[in-house]
Amino acid sequence: MLDNVIYRKAKSMKVSDYFEYKKCEYVYLQLIVTKSNRNTNTEQIASLVNKMFKKTNKYICQASKRLIIEERPKASFYIHITKDKVQFYFIIPKIFQNQFKTKFKEIWKNIEIKEVDNIPIDINSCSKFDLHYKYDDSLSLAVDKRNNDLLNANMSIVDMLEQNESVGIFYNFIPTSDKESNYFKSKTYKNAIARFKNGENLKKSKNYKDYSIVIIKNLIDFINGLLNSFFNTKQNNQLVLNPLKIEISYSTKRKGEKAICKNQTIIFAKSNKKEREIELSNTLANTFKSISDNNELIVTEITKNIDIKRTIINHTTVNKTTIEEDSNFINMPSTEVIKQFDMIEHNKCLELKAPACLENGEVRIGKVKNKENAQEIYFSKDDQIKRLGRVILGSMGSGKSYFMANSLAKDIIKADRGLVDIDYIDKCQVADSIKAIAPKDKIIEINFNDPNQLQAFNYNELTFNEDDDIYYKVNISMQKAEQMQLLLDSINDDTSKLTPRMLRYFYAAATVVYYKNPNASFKEIINIMKSHDNREIIIDKINREGQLLLSDEIDDLRDLDKKNSNGKIENYDSKIDGILDRVAWLKTNLFTKLAFNKKADNNIDFVKALKENKVILIKIPEQYFKSRMIRNVIATFFLNKIWISKQIDSSTHTELFFDEIHQCYNCQLLMQNILVECRKFKLTPTLALHYLDQLTPKCKSSVLASGSSYLLLQGCDVKAFKELSHYFEKDGYTETDLTELDRYNALCLIKNEEKGYSSFICKLPS
């Protein structure tokens, strides 16, 4: 029978088949602050730590036949200090990282959160010291949300550190249940405070001196009782020899009202010598005296290895701190602390995200860094908003011209928009830079110092054909006369006054001349004002119908005739002397004199050129036009030609660059009208200035009312910020953000369809 029995080997069982201990997975987050930082609500982080608490049975679950036990989570805060750098880290359970990130951003509005691999210290290869309460846990450390006293004191260790040395402060926060907090407040705290008020020594570790004090106190209590019995003293008068009662501090009083979030605090010190590590640790530990109150923190060396990922770190004391006491530890440096210790890793400026509608477009602004993210940002591509102006504000050498000539121009040409650059700065480097990147077949170059390229002073875009209706001809002639009157007015000669009567004569002469020949030179207008014979010759060439329609203008011209004593007709020069004086200025420069004399037969038709999206480079180099007034006349002439052309045909989008327009008074007068109407005619002006107050008050008002976008480049005068402060301050930007900009960065205020105006800091394209 036994021979038939089959013996089988017993099957072994693995413990892991039935039990699993699941460790909590942590992420390491580096927090980088800005200068505008506040710590008034950091106790909310300790409160969030407590919200991770779950009852023990919640950490145990069954999956199939396996029993899974999860490790309790915790959160830690670490400050790493070297001579050259101070950094801040949080160690957060991975499953709670979103909640903590949200809370960090709520408390520190402008914090950058960066995920890293680890904290920058090997904790078990350096000296470690445990910071724990000297007295009973019921007594509190000092609590004041209004200051950075502890962190400020901690930072003083920097002066003592040498190269290749580092120290760190590690705060471990352990989730604490409401039940434990309530028990502490209702039992432990009340009993301890009663003993403290009664003068008892609540020191956790007592020495001989402490025990002597206890014996003396007990002796006094005995004598009190004896005397009270002997004299039969009433109970309310029985304190004969009792010492003075001790009052608790404001912070200790509040400890009985706040939730507990248990804490472990460890100091790390790394140096080449053990003695040096001890010295650094003791010095850093002493800085915690800045928050001493009824309680204080003392230091004990940890001689064994520790595991900072454990919920309760081994070989380290647990302190029953309140969330308010923990807020002392969870502090980011304020502006004052960063100014004093500039090695603290921080972002100099407030970093805000640009609206999503600016993430796509044709014309780049640059890269926006927002905390841990980066965006490539463009000017709005909205059909209406993209026609509004731009204003680039910056000091000399800030990169205004480079940004216009390289980044803006490149993108504008790529987008197949027309581009006009009026350049009278130095040697016209902006125009030359644009020329270098533009396709040759798109370039129209007008060197006003080149006799072959300079244009006649004639608005030839306003023209007519010989067979056109007479009314159309007269209308065009009158429009051209009106524009020439504006050009004449741009010759700012303080010694000559243009009376309304003088302007009437000029207007009449220009209308008659242009009716006869729309391409006539400026000189021909002046000639018929100066000479009776010239007037009569041109009037005689006008047909009868034309003379009837221009009778008022002809009468005005004949008003310049006078007879001398011999009965000969002469010219009444005194009636037009202001005009002649101004025209004389044009003859002080060779090239304006040539433009004055030249007919417009070979002038470029700006209407046609802009419709073809040409790149028109108008160069007025200072070395040839040293008079600011002459540069003003030429620039005004071309600006007006562009504006007239866009009013005639606005079928295509044209960009206009104008650097330092404040140098040209009459251009500002014209620009103040252009800015508020440019959207209708698909013209986008880009103005480069030092600050807005360089403009005339009316031109400045037009800029501000036009819906323009603004770029304040690094080195920009703070006046520029003040002029736009009501926009920037609503987003939290201050003058400090402008002054702290890195080179080739800009504080931007950009018009967009999503938010109206959005402000952010941008690195300009290289």
Automatic annotation (TrEMBL):
Domain of life of the organism encoding this protein: Bacteria
Native source organism of the sequence: Terrisporobacter hibernicus
Protein name as catalogued: Helicase HerA central domain-containing protein
Matching InterPro entries: P-loop_NTPase
Origin organism lineage: Bacteria, Bacillati, Bacillota, Clostridia, Peptostreptococcales
